[in-house]
Structure formats: structure tokens, C-alpha cells
Amino acid sequence: MREKLAVPEAECANAIEELCGLNHVVEAAVLSTCNRVEVYVVALSRDRALFEVTEWMAKKSGTDVSDLKPHLFVLRESDATQHLFRVSAGLDSLVLGEGQVLSQVKQVATIGNGAKGFGKIMTLLFNRAIQLGKEVRTKTNISSGAVSISASAVELALSKLPVTTFRSVRVLVVGAGKTGKLVIKHLAAKGSKHIVVVNRSEQKVAAIHKELKGVELIYKPSTEMLACAAEADVVFTCTSSEKPLFLKEQVETLPSVSESLGGLRLFVDISVPRNVGSCVSDVGSARLYDVDDLKEAMEANMEKRRRKAMEAEPIIAENLLQFEDAFNSFETVPTLKKLRSYAETIRAEELEKCLSKLGADLPEKLIPEVTALSHRIVKKLLQGPIQHLKCSASEHRTLEETVENMHVINRVYSLDTQEFHVRAE
Prior knowledge:
Layout lengths: L1 H4 L6 H9 L4 E9 L2 E8 L2 H16 L3 H4 L8 H13 L10 H14 L6 H21 L8 H11 L11 E4 L3 H12 L4 E5 L4 H9 L4 E5 L4 H6 L3 E4 L10 H4 L13 E5 L16 E4 L5 H4 L3 H28 L3 H26 L8 H21 L11 H15 L12
Parallel strand pairs: 3-4, 3-6, 4-5, 6-7, 7-8
Antiparallel strand pairs: 1-2
């Protein structure tokens, strides 16, 4: 189901625009990784938007709504915000504290910047999530000893072999993108000296080769993939192909692996959609592991990471309050702008009258000082009203109180009826 719902990076911007084309969705974002497909929306009506988004997901994946619903979870308001913060911090990953998911959250924000429908609320939400992800990793050191999906794949493969390093193991990596690159680096760290890499182009393989010392990367085109698999003891697949690269009938034709390595060829598939057909599991001379099998390779360091995760919770709680302060303040932004504009109009007019009256009696070098003085006076006078237009949990001011303050300021200064013309100094 996750594979059917996966949204390729190249399609994310279109997905956002499609979601915002729904009747009750104002803003949207899509976070699609090997372990999750999440849709975030700002909605005019929660229930109606949920219905529309569910229908959209079903249509997008070619799945009946009745088959899709059992696999969905729904979070609203602060629960949804907290969830994204935990995702960004690495607390909701298969590998607790892994860093790759933070890069994926950053990519959502990057793609969103150019997509119609990724508005001010989504921008605020994802920017805050990115900042929090960095803060948690800096303050808790949760990534220390933690591994990525790629590293877990390498650990899992090694645990299934009767050796302690990859030095004597023939390895094939299919795909040289971000995930493939990480697999190669972790293989090198575990002793692999000769790695065959199948990829559509040689440039990426050459670039990775430059970063590694003492490791021979042998590039092969995609047309030679099956021949390369025939000479490999372990095959890692990590491409974006939407069709399986290895099927049962192909794997059955491959020669046997040396008995010294257990006599079984290992396929470790960390792609979504899967690169290796599930039917390969039926081949007696092969063993297939995918993303869901990686949990076994993560248990060793999990307790340590759980302790670090506990240290991250207060940071998440604080960032949640700060986000809600900023989010709730959106409602008062128009009043803030009008109040500042009103004050600026008066300041500019009174300053002009003052300078006109003083004329030649005021030395020209003092004009900037007098102008700066007028700005400081206005800033201090506005400090109180502006503070009461901000919904701050730290000051125990509720959203209702903030909105009431907004109405009072609008009435006192007649902000709803006046027109302001701000001058540029």
C-alpha cells in the first residue's frame, strides 16, 4: 500500500497543486519517504477536507477507499504539528535519530517554495520543523551511534553472513543516488574494497569514487545488471524504478554462491517501490530482505537512542508552543500592519511639520537625529499594543484574549475605517 501511495520527488509540486485544487484544502505539503507517505493540509473544513484528501489518495494510488482507510492515521492541529516535529527530529523513524529524514523534510520545503499551495502556514510549519531537527541533534547528540536506513541495510546483510567484514564478499549496488551512495560508504566502512555499481550514468559513480580512498568502485551500465548479479554474493538495490528489477525467473538462473558464504545470495532491497519482486523469496538459493526487515538490525543501539529521545521531548514541546504562538498571531497580522501604518502616517506628517517650522534654525546634520528620535518614540508607544496582539503562551494569553485585544485596538484607532499612506524614509 505504501508503494502504491508513494509520490516521487518530481511529482510532489504537482501533488501539492492538486490537493489545493480540492474544495476545502487551502494549503498542502507531501512528505513521501521509504517508510511513510504523509499529507499535511490547511483546511476550511476538517471533515470535508479529510474526505477529499482520502479520495485523492485513493485515486492517485488506484486503490479503493475501503482498502485504503485501514492503513490511514489522522492527526489534527497540535497533534499534527507535534508529529512532524518528531519526524524531523528522527523520533518517528525506523532508525531512531537517523539524519536522512531531516534532509527529506528540507526537500519538502524546497519543493514547496516553488509550488502553488505551499503557503505561509506550511512554510512556517516546515521551517520550524527543520530548525527543531537541527536543534535536537545538536543538544541531545541523538545521532551519535545512530544509523541510516542504508547503514542498517549493510548491518543486516553482514549479520546474515558467516563473516565479520565485507572484505571477502562480492558486492553489487544497484543505484548510485543518495541512498546508494550511503550504502557504498557504509560498505567501505565495513571493509569492502571492491564494489560493483550498476547505474544509468557513470558520472555519479565517478563522483562517489573521488570521495572514497582505498576502495575500487567498478561502474557497469544497467544493461549488465543481471550479469553483475550473477557474480555477486550480496545485492543491494536502491533505485527509483517503479518496476521490479529482479524477478523470480531471473534469480533462478543465477549461479550458486560459495558455500563458505552460506550458499545463499542475499538481496537487500531498500527501495520504495520495491526493486526486487516478492516472488524472489521463493527461490531456494536466495534470501530477500526489504525495508520492513531492517528493524532486526536496529535493536543493538535502540535503548541508548531511546534515552536520547527522552531528552528531545522538552525541546519539541517548547518548539510546539513557539509555533502555535506564531500560527495564532496570523489572525492579528492585518491589525498589526494597520496599526504600524497608522502610527507611521502620523509620525511622518508631524515630523514634516516640525522640520518645516524650524527651517534654517535646525542644522542639517541634526535632521537624521530628529528623524531617528521620532521612530524611537513611535516604537516605544506601540510596544504595549503590539505585544497584546501576539498570542503568547509564555504570557498565558489565550487566542480568545488576543482576538479581543485586536477588536479593541481596531475600535480605539478606527483602523477599519481609515486609509493610510506609508512614506519611505
